[in-house]
Specification:
The protein is mainly β and 119 residues long. 0% of the residues lie in helices and 55% in strands. Strands 2, 4, 5, 6, 9, 10 and 11 form a 7-stranded mixed β-sheet that branches. Strands 1-3-8-7 form a 4-stranded antiparallel β-sheet, with no helix packed on it. The termini are far apart.
């Protein structure tokens, strides 16, 4: 059974930092591309950051220069370091694991963790 378990969310003041973690089980973590998405109330889910199995990274425009995604294959964990947080970063953050092999795509989601940025 595949499980992606996020942690590290919470309430933080504008300008503060948080580090999200996503621990994966039930998959061969190292061969999956991993990502963080977020969804704010009334908005569509959007990509925050992604890291390929080879370590290449990609960021949403709104978080470039503030957020950093990384992975530790030995711990089956992907991280999202979030610095200089803004009120508009408030959302539920979801971990995603994605792998394409031939015509088949395997996609898994975590349950989400709430991040609230407020003074």
């Amino acid at each position: 059974q595949v499980q992606l378990v996020e942690s590290g969310g919470g309430l933080v003041q504008p300008g503060g930092s948080l580090r999200l973690s996503c621990a994966a089980s039930g998959i061969v973590f190292s061969i999956y591309d991993m990502g963080w998405y977020r969804q704010a109330p009334g908005k569509q889910r959007e990509l925050v950051a992604a890291i390929t199995s080879g370590g290449s990274t990609n960021y949403g425009d709104s978080v470039k220069g503030r957020f950093t995604i990384s992975r530790d294959n030995a711990k089956n964990t992907v991280y999202l370091q979030m610095n200089n947080l803004k009120v508009e970063d408030t959302a539920v953050y979801y971990c995603n694991a994605d792998r394409v092999t031939g015509p088949v795509e395997y996609i898994h989601w975590g349950q989400g963790t709430q991040v609230t940025v407020s003074s």
